[in-house]
Each structure stands twice: as structure tokens, then as C-alpha cells.
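Extended Data, record hydroxymethylpyrimidine kinase
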Amino acid sequence: MSYPKGTVMHKSSSIPVVLTIAGSDSGGGAGIQADIKAISATGGYAASVITAITSQNTLGVTDILPIPLAHIESQLDAVFGDLNIVAVKIGMLADSDIIHLVADKLRQYRPQFIVLDPVMVATSGDLLLKQSAISSLKECLLPLADIITPNLPEAAALTGLEQPNNADEINDMVLSLRQLGTSAVLLKGGHLEQSSYSDDLLITQNEIHQLSAERIDTINTHGTGCTLSSAIASFLAQGDDLQQSVSHAKEYITLAIGSADKLSVGQGRGPVDHFFMLHQSK
């Protein structure tokens, strides 16, 4: 797939609406901001429900302000009550109460596709969700999702297994991931930094598809998980099947990472280049 300058990627006469439910990143690299960029860049129309506001930049997170539960509910009712939301991407939910609320609203409004990025583990390795909230996530949201997109630390937290350190240990985790009760899992292998390739596994109940891309030497990977899951939701909303959506999203994030160093944003781990297609001729 190529993305020539000016390409419009949505296939229907009306643009498909994709809702992101996640936290806000004031630095613009991850969370709601990355989701909106990725959905827009891949041809969807992005709506949002914000679950928390962070004080954040490329150097880290300095403060988090949770959104009151009643206002999260009113945001959900507002967007679902007016917009024809085809796909939903779910990111940071913070606690069990928010998880239960989002699950209830998804059962009420029944969007066609649900993509869950289980944001649970910080780059430092610290858990961002309490164990009770992880249990709520597994019980309430995973059964509703068409696909979940954990990285290796998140997959370990979901399954209770040790984090894999090589391809054999990743393969040993497949059965436990299939037993989580979701339709499909995209297990992201980006944390295997000793590998020269970034290999992801699309795991369904009957098949495993490997998606491979050469690892790109850059520190500017802030927001890759948010971006990838949002792109999957966007492609699903446009009519691609699951395997096509994951493949197209993998190609999109690879190109966005490959162009990330051109942005030179911030002093730490910068964002990927969501709109790399606009910079191809520069």
C-alpha cells in the first residue's frame, strides 16, 4: 500500500465515523491526540470520549486528572446519540468504574466493531491498572472486542504469565491468549528489541498470521500502540476485513515510525509522523 500526497482513503460516499475512548496526552503524541491523527490520516472521521487528562510531553507524565464518571457517560451518550459510529477504539480507562460504564454503553449502543488497546503497563514496567481493574477489563470488555492489541508486557498482565523474551516464549503464550474470550488478539512484538524485525502475531481461534516489518532505529516511537489500534479501527470502519485492517494498519504505523525523525518534536521520545504522506515530497 502507498500513500501518495492528497490521497483520500475512505471508500464510501459518506466518511465512516470512528470513536476513540481514551485519555488525553497534552504533548500530542499518544492517547486521544494520536488516535484522532491516525483515524484522520487513514480516511476515517474521528470522534472522542476523554477518560482522563494528563500533563504529559515527550519526557514523561507529570500529572493525571480523571474525568468524572457522569461526564464520561454524558460524552458517550452525546456522540452515540447523534453520530453513526461504525467502529470504536478503546485505550486508557483508568479504573473499574470506567470500565464497567464503557462496557454498559457499548452493549447499549452496539457499534459494529470494537478494537481494544489494553493500556495497562507503563514503559517503566509499572502497572497502570490495579489488579481489580484488570479483572474488570477481562470480564466486561474483552468479550465485547473484535480484537485486542496488547504488547508483550500487557499480554503478560492479561494472562498471568511471564513476559516473553523470545519467539518460542511468545508461541507458548498463544493458548492462554486464546482463552481470554476475545475474537482475535494482535500480539505486538516490539518489545523484543534484540530482534532486527518487529514481528506481530494476529491470533484467532483457528489461525495465526505473522506480520513482519524491519525494525527502525529511532527513539521516536511515542504513541505507536495508540496509533496502530486506531488505524485498525479506521480500516475496519471502511470495510476491510480483520486481516486486511491489521495488515494495512501495520504498514501505516511502520511508515509513520520510519518518518518520525523528520518531526524533531520535544527533547525525549518523540511522536511518530501520523501524516507522513503529506511530507513525502519535502
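Summary. Residues 1-8 have pLDDT under 50 and may be disordered.
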